[in-house]
Structure formats: C-alpha cells, structure tokens
C-alpha cells in the first residue's frame, strides 16, 4: 500500500490550549500520533497523489473542536468544512483519524474515519491513548473482584451500575472526582491503587461509547471490562479481545459475568492485556492496525 499525506494549512493543525483530559495526560492524542508514525514509514509514502492507494487527511479534529467551544451550536464548522474541502482530492481514497466524541462533524463524503470515541457517528474504532499511570514498586494485593472510579453522570448506564453494584460484596464503586487540587492528587493515586487491587476494572461508557479506563486498566495490568450498548473495542478483525478483556452490553449482563468469572481467569487476562497494550496499543504501536484495516477494505 502507498499513502500520500495530504498537505494541510496550519489552521487545520491548531496548537493546543489549556484543556487536557485525563488531567495527567500530555496534550497528545491519536490524531498527532498517527501523523508522527506515518511520516517515519518511508516505505509506505509517495509524493504523487495519483500513484497513492490512499490519501491521509491529517487534521487535528479534537484540538479544532475544543478550541471552538466543542463545536457547540456549530461554532467553527463552516470554516472547517471550507478548509477541508480545499484539501481533499479524492474522498474515495481518503482516510482520517479522530478522537473527538462526535468525530469530524463534517460532510467528508466517502472518507474512511478511524475514531477513538464515537457517539452516534460511524467509523472504524481505534484506541484511546494517554500517558501511562505510575505504578508503585510493590503492587497492591488483590482485594476487589471489580472496581470503578469516576463520575456517574455522563451516561445512564453508570447510574444503573452504581445503583445495582454499590452494595455488592467484592465490588468497589468510587465516587465523583474532587475539585480541590490536593484531593484530586490523592484521588488519582487511589485510582491507580484501587484498579491494581482489582481483578477486573469496570469501564462503562460515558459521553462516548469508549472509555479511557479500558486502556488505562490494560496499562496497569488489570483485565478491563467495557460496559455499553456498542462494543467499540478497536480492530476486532485483528485483536483477540475475548482473550484479554470482557464486554457487557448491559448492567444485567455485567452482573451475570461477575457471578461466573473466576479470579484465575481474570488474572490471566490482566497479564495478557498489559503485554498487548505495551506491544500493540501504546503510542505509535497501534498505527499498524490502521494500515491492516485499510488493506482489508481494499
């Protein structure tokens, strides 16, 4: 496969502003990561768009939408659409990467969109990446079958999960993120420790169908469980997710899973999840799957 990187004006690759999520993360997501990786793959690149099998559209969608009030009320969209229309040569050859919850929010024709956090928009699911959490030198002992740390208001499934599991023996349900800085620091430390003290890390969907917690759990060596109406575990054509994670479409299904899962199975999945995260889903490790998906489409 040969790829032509579409030249884009600086306005389509805006500088970051102060907003970071999660708070411990660098301002560095999959949109920038793919471009960095692809520029190193000289064997894949061509300077002739006519000879290329695919055109890569390297717009930093998330930065744009954040810098334009999260596109509330369509802020910035006409300008963005006009600039992107100038860049795309052949939408049937084009692909792009986005981490923003709503995707590109534009009409980009047949362009293939790889998306890390989709809501009702379509696309090929990609991972969410962020800076690794710190691990203590001595890992905490397991004391929870499953745990969740975070807010409950971003999706009804979180409220339901809290209601049905908060009093269940062996399950830890953390609360809202504190506002004071020092409390947030302790909360973040407890997030790591509570997750590592669990056999399963619960990662319910929020505003988007995906969850940072899913991939953070993998990095911490704990079997993640995605909970939500859409299974957005990425690159299912190539990654054996059932060997390294769990998925529950509903809280009822999650309760049944917790009734039947064994600690030995969860431990094994957690170990495999970490190895897979380190080798295949970390910064620039995941990008090869974009090429595999494009080859599959072709």
Question: Outline of this structure?
Answer:
The chain has 298 residues and is of the alpha/beta class. The protein has helices spanning 30-40, 61-67, 77-87, 156-165, 181-196, 212-219, 241-244, 251-260, 263-281, 287-297; strands spanning 3-5, 54-57, 94-98, 112-115, 124-125, 144-148, 171-173, 198-204, 223-227, 246-248.
Radius of gyration: 20 Å
Major sheet summary line: 5 strands, parallel
Tell me the domain tally. Answer: 2
Number of helices: 10
Can you walk me through this structure?
With about 300 residues, this protein is α/β, with parallel strands linked by helices. It folds into 2 domains: about 5-130 and about 285-295, no CATH class; about 145-280, Rossmann fold (3-Layer(aba) Sandwich). The protein has 10 helices and 10 strands. It has helices spanning about 30-40, 60-65, 75-85, 155-165, 180-195, 210-220, 240-245, 250-260, 265-280, 285-295, and strands spanning about 5, 55, 95-100, 110-115, 125, 145-150, 170-175, 200-205, 225, 245-250. It has a 5-stranded parallel sheet. It has a 5-stranded parallel sheet with strand order 7-6-8-9-10, with helices on both faces. Helix 6 (about 210-220) packs across helix 9 (about 265-280). Mean pLDDT is about 90; it is low at about 180-185.
Describe the structure using short key phrases.
298 residues; 5-stranded parallel beta sheet; Rossmann fold; glycosyltransferase activity; 10 strands; single chain; alpha/beta; Exostosin family protein; globular; Exostosin; Exostosin_GT47; 14% strand
């Amino acid at each position: 496969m040969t790829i032509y990187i579409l030249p884009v004006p600086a306005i389509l690759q805006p500088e970051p502003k102060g907003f970071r999520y999660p708070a411990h993360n660098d301002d560095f997501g999959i949109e920038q990561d793919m471009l960095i990786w692809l520029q190193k793959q000289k064997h894949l690149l061509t300077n002739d768009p006519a000879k290329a099998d695919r055109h890569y559209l390297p717009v930093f969608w998330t930065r744009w939408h954040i810098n334009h009030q999260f596109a509330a009320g369509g802020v910035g969209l006409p300008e963005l659409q006009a600039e992107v229309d100038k860049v795309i040569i052949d939408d049937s050859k084009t692909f792009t990467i986005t981490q923003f919850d709503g995707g590109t929010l534009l009409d980009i024709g047949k362009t293939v969109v790889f998306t890390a956090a989709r809501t009702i928009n379509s696309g090929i699911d990609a991972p969410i990446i962020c800076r690794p959490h710190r691990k203590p030198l001595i890992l905490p002992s397991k004391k929870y079958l499953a745990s969740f740390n975070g807010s409950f208001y971003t999706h009804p499934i979180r409220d339901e999960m809290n209601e049905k599991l908060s009093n269940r023996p062996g399950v830890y349900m953390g609360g809202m993120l504190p506002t004071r800085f020092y409390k947030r620091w302790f909360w973040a430390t407890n997030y790591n420790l509570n997750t590592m003290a669990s056999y399963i890390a619960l990662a319910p969907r929020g505003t988007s169908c995906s969850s940072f917690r899913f991939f953070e759990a993998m990095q911490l060596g704990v079997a993640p469980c995605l909970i939500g109406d859409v299974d957005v575990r990425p690159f299912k054509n190539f990654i054996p997710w059932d060997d390294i994670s769990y998925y529950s479409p509903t809280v009822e299904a999650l309760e049944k899973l917790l009734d039947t899962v064994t600690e030995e199975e969860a431990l094994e999945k957690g170990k495999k999840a970490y190895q897979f995260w380190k080798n295949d889903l970390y910064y620039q490790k995941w990008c090869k799957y974009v090429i595999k998906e494009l080859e599959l489409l072709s």
